[in-house]
Amino acid sequence: MTTNVNTAYSDLVEKLEEISRLGGVMSTLHWDQEVIMPSGAAESRAKQISALAGVIHERSTDPQLGECLDALKKEDPSTFNKFEACNIREAQREYDKETKVPKKLVQEMAELGSRGHFVWIKAREENKFSDFAPTLKRFIEMKKEWAAYVFPDLTPYDANIDNYERGTTMAEIAPIFERLKSELIPLIQSVKEAKHHPDTSFLEGTFPVDKQEALGKQISTDMGFSFDQGRMDVSVHPFCGGGHPTDVRITTRYRDSDFIESLYAVIHETGHGLYEQGRMKEGRDLPVSEALTMGIHESQSLFWERMIAQNKAFCAHYMETFQTTFPNNMQGVSVSALYEAINNCKPSFIRVEADELTYPLHVILRFEIEKGLFDGSVSVDGLPELWNDKMVTYLGVRPPTDTLGVLQDVHWSGGAFGYFPSYTLGAMYACQFYKTMLGELPDTEKYIEEGKFAPIKTWLNEKIHSQGSLYSPQELVQKVTGEPLNPDHFINYLKTKYRAIYQIN
Ligand code: ZN
Description:
Blueprint: H1 3-35, H2 42-60, H3 63-73, H4 82-99, H5 103-125, H6 129-150, H7 156-164, H8 170-193, H9 209-223, E1 230-234, E2 240-244, E3 247-252, H10 259-277, H11 294-308, H12 312-325, H13 327-330, H14 335-342, H15 359-375, H16 383-395, H17 421-440, H18 444-450, H19 454-463, H20 473-481, H21 487-501
Parallel strand pairs: 1-3
Antiparallel strand pairs: 2-3
Bound molecules: zinc ion.
């Protein structure tokens, strides 16, 4: 490296680290707001968050940052190792995203985002989609405009997808989703018609919250979550936040009538938390160490929630613990019965409550609708009808109200389009990673049955968590599994599993 390049790169690092640290402060403020802040502080907190957001925006659009990037662009790319090249690439991408959009549009989107949220809450409460429709229309127009500024080479919907799952396009997703539809719709139908259904009665009852909390902490610790560098608390919606890999905050919620919901939320969020705690040791305040995409993040939470914790071996290991913790409910329940009960499949209206077999159809429905909204083939006013018709075709149920249909998700009220595919991409990645792990660690299920999760965590740490943002999701999947995303693994997994549980020939 010449001295100049050296200075430009170290200047860049300094600026990026500051932005990342300010972002960490922001995350901590958000966590505080969701978990322990007194409700009377809502207004002052909103102002603090907005002030800090202003500072972060200023730093992220600093012309000097642009000058550093310009200077580095003139250099021979081979001057930089892959760690440095990644920081430069990611910084350029973020800088473009922050600076290419006119300020007026940024402000208008932020304003509609906060106003839209309340419009949506009210429309949902009153079951009145027509009240939300104008907000939705305006957001789509703005997001099309935004796309033209930020990713002019992509179609508007692809640009929105790229925001969450870079490098992934409709052309890649659509055929995979068609494949899922053609396999899963008939499978769900067979499940519905099956003579054998899991008995879930023993999961109903009263489960003291203090015992649920102790159980959740124990299992999270068993999985390898470090409570020296993390916490577990309660919030309305479970999430994984925190300001740094050494300070990872996961949350869950409790209902004393259901321990599975809170426990699996803990396991899910612990999966996200292990990704954060497992980030590369070097450059932890730099883009290179950051978690890759929404889809890859979700692959890590779903890996633990579904591939590990919905596995029979997991039920076998924890059966005795469950029975000791909840003696009134779980006595005499067999491992097979527990395994079947936690994998019960039932088509329902609400995405966030859906099981792993019906979930992809909820996502595909939204993907098709968003695609149509952006290419103009779907009109906002016709959405409730279209939504409900698709629910009948895909899941055999028609939502009786828009509250239980088109108005259920928060995403569109904040202008988050192209986000939904990440959930199902994550589920497919998780399944493909698990299959590769079984090949490389043939004793995986034995480890699970013994409650020995260290080899599993270490594998994920090495192959995925510590890789940060060095590769695109496509490259990472290829590198880890030896092939591109292949929906066959997910389809075969679901078919084998649910045919066995429901005794379908
Ligand atoms: Zn998640």
